[in-house]
Each structure stands twice: as structure tokens, then as C-alpha cells.
Amino acid sequence: MTEAPSTTPELTSAQRTEVELVARGKQAKSRTLRELGQPETPEAAHALLLRLGLWDEARTPYADRLGVALTPVTQPVPDFPAEERLDLTHLPAFAIDDEGNRDPDDAVSSEPLPGGLTRLWVHVADVAALVPAKSPLDEEARARGATLYLPDQTVGMLPDALVERAGLGLTETSPALSIALDLDADGNAETVDVHLTRVRVTRLTYTQAQQRLEAGEAPFVQLAHLARASRALREGEGALSIDLPEVRVRADKHGAVVAPLPKPEMRAVVQECMTLAGWAAAIYADDHGLPLPFATQDAPTRDVQGDTLPAHWARRKTLARTRFQPAPGPHHGMGLDLYAQATSPLRRYLDLVVHQQLRAHLTGRVPLSSQEVAARVAQAQMNADATRQAERLSRKHHTLRFVAAQPDRVWDAVVVERRGPQATLLLPDLALDLPLSTPASLGTALRVRLTDVNLPALTVRARPL
Q: For 136-173, where are the E strands, in sequence order?
């Protein structure tokens, strides 16, 4: 870590408050920092508070600086309305997620049909039944944009009580908004539909689901077959394959742990099912003239071939940012002619808007207009962007804590990009990229030590061995 100076100043209570306000991004000027000869920046204030022992290394100020809410939503939660639902409790349904997930908002089922078809059901928590458009809970969720996932805490977009009431598999049966696709053996969709349903959901981790797939259990084998066929169809339409290391970062005041995220086939199967559900929801909305926050993406700027880490790194950089708009358009990265994110209404506000619109149509109510959807896209995306940036910076902060706690460890790295004398290293075990001046060519594997960790600046140096 950054070394402490030989003499450490003492701050009065007022001075400490002033420096903390700068570190939290709530104040731009600081007489105290000027008198100490320090820059008037959040990073310098953060460094001073660490040196004085007034903050510990577990403290992350990024959400605060970005104006992201760190307090839970405590508004009252209504009951589900009494209404007719299609009873699907006879179908085995599985909510498959990472271990420790606390907001299960999607589940999958498969149902054999005559003529060699299979109905894929993607059940999604019927959050819009409890959070209608323009309600106080809707306004609060819009102001947050998304649930905040930090290594040391989770701050929901919606009240915890709502998650407990609406989450799939948290009660014996669950109300859901279920998206159905009738697929042939090659993954082509014959029909799509949307229903208000009641389902009985079993919760599984990806590891448990993978074990059931490998044991040959029919629902999992069928889901895997459908997912492979669908993925092949999308790749034929130009969908990009990007496979870069991912990690899970967990932290508390005692330390941080960074662990590579396992990628069993069932993770890809669930992702493909969610993609199909978003495609089907977009088709259904387009067929019925419903404005949604449709997700669109321009074509890649260039074609990158290969299956190496540098190729995947370069391919990701060819992708344009996903845009959300009230009218459908192609999503080139997914190889789809139209698409909407529809499977995480507990966690993403624009998914909730999709559900509000679908639900309005199903119940005969007036949906939001295109102008109203566009206004929600603008506000929610700005707030969600701040949330995602706070998550990214906080993960890097705790990743550097993890690195600093083991200064003698040797890390594997790969050169994934070159620009003149400067290279970018990717450390797969940390999903961390770092600059390095080296003549090593693209794709070269290196072994490095990481030194000079600076938490306030979020920097670290790689020294090749």
C-alpha cells in the first residue's frame, strides 16, 4: 500500500468532515488539503484519510461520489391482485443462478408438444403486478435505475420485502409473467406468446443444474439441446461470441476474496433461454403495437476472427454500446432483428418497464406511450450507468486489496493488445487488465508480480519475472 509519511498531521473534527466531504465527492474545495500541500481531489483526500487511520481499506467511496443511493427502499409493498392466471404448477420449473443469489427473478421449463415441437417457457417474477407504472415504487425504481451489487453489500432497486414476495421459488407457488416459444428441433420459433401464470419453482445453482444435465435428466438435456440450436442460428445471423474471464469479488472489513467464475454449460444454456425470452417479448410487443425499451446495437466496426484471449478482447472492442429506444431495431451483437431485456425486473428498471407494458396489454389497460417510454429510458439509463460504474470501481478497489494482501504471489498474464511500445496485460485469475511497456508480442503469456498498490488512485504495477 501507499507508505505513510514520517509525520502525520492531526485533524480537528471540522477538518476531518471537510476532507471526508471531498473524498466522497460532495465538496470540491478544501482549505485543509491546501494547507497540507495536497491536491484538492477526492483521491488525495481518500489517501490522507487512509494515512490517518480515519478510513480503513475496506471503505469504498465510489457509489457516494457518483450519487448512487446506498440506503434500502422501505416503501410499503402491496399484495398481488386477485386475477385469473394460467396454472403451470404441473410443469417442473427451475430458477438457476449463482450460489448465494437472493433475487431469483427468472426460471425455465420445457414442455414437449405434438409434431416434434418443444415449448420453452421462461417464467419471470411478475414484479409489474406490484409496481405499476407511475406508482411511488415505480418512481423510486426509476430513480435508481438498477440494483447496486457491491462486493460488500447489495442495495436493491426495490424493497427487500417485495423481492421476498415476488422472487421465484421463495414461496410454494409464485405468480409469474411467462414467455412461451414453440421451437422445432433446429431452434426455429413457430409461435411466441405471453401469459400471466402461476408456477412452482425449484431453485438450483449452476453447479447443481450442470450435475443434472450430466446425469441425463430430461428437462436439462432438452434445454441444452434447444440452447445449442438457438445459439447456432444466431451465430449464423452474425451473433458475436465473446468469452473473457469473469470473477466474483467478495469483501468485508477483514479482507477481500477474488475467485474465477465457473462457466459450466448450464450457464450458457440459461443465458440463451433468457436471450430467447427477450426476443420473444420484443416480437410479441411489436405484433401488438406496444412501445417498449427495445435494445438495439449497431453492427461491429470490423470482423475479428479467432478464439484466443486477444481475439476475444479485440472482438469486444468492436461492439457499439447498446441503445434503448421505443421502436424495434436490430441487435447485431446478438444476431437478432429485434430484442428487449425482459428477464430481470427485480434488478433492472427497463426490464420492469417491459413487464409493465406487457401486463397492460394482457389486462386490457392503457400502456405507456412511446414518449413516456423514451423519457423512462433516458432517466433510468443515466442512473443505471452510475450504478454500473460504482460497481466496476468498487470491484477494482477490492481486487487491489486482494492483491496487496499477497505481495509475493506470481500471477499469470497474457498480452491482449499492443499500441506501439505499450501493451495491455490481462490477468485471467483477477479479470484485471493493466498497462505494461514490453516488447512481448500479442498473445504472449507472462508471469508477473503486482506491486505498488494504490487504493485511492486504483492503480497497481505489473513487474514481469
A: 148-150, 153-155
Residue 7 — pLDDT band, cuts 50, 70, 90? low
pLDDT (mean) for 4-14 = 73
Domain of residue 450, CATH code:
2.40.50.140
CA distances, 133 to each of 11, 139, 143, 221, 340 (Å): 49, 8, 13, 39, 18
Going by the DSSP 8-state scheme, the letter that residue 249 receives in this structure is E
Type and span of the H or E element at 181: strand 174-183
The C-alpha atoms of residue 372 and residue 68 are separated, in whole angstroms, by 24
pLDDT at 124: 98
Instruction: State pLDDT tens for residues 263-299.
Output: 999 999 999 999 999 999 999 999 999 999 999 999 9
% pLDDT > 70, the chain: 98
Kindly report the backbone phi and psi dihedral angles of residue 7, in degrees, each rounded to the nearest multiple of 5, phi listed first: -125, 135
pTM (global) more than 0.90: yes
Q: 384 and 146 in contact (C-beta within 8 Å)?
A: yes
In sequence order, what E strands does 210-286 have? 247-252, 255-260
Is the Cβ–Cβ distance between 80 and 175 less than 8 Å?
A: yes
Q: How far apart are the first and last CA of the chain?
A: 21
- Helix runs in 91-151, H state only: 136-144
Number of domains present in the structure of the chain = 3
Alpha carbon distance 258, 256 (integer Å): 7
Span 86-94, average pLDDT: 97
The DSSP bridge pattern shows strands 422-427 and 189-199 to be unpaired
Domain boundary (350, 366, 397) is at 397
At 100 the three-state DSSP class reads coil
**Alpha carbon distance 423, 462 (integer Å):** 11
Write down the residue that cell numbers 478544501 correspond to.
Answer: 30
Domain contains 312: yes
- DSSP code for 336: B
Kindly state the cell numbers that stand for 412.
499469470
pLDDT in tens, 28-60: 999 999 999 999 999 999 999 999 999 999 999
50 and 96 inside one domain: no
Which residues contact residue 413 at a Cβ distance below 8 angstroms, ignoring those fewer than 6 apart?
425, 426, 427, 434, 445, 446, 447, 448, 462
Q: Are residues 379 and 412 in the same domain?
A: no
**Residue 445 sits in which domain range?**
406-464
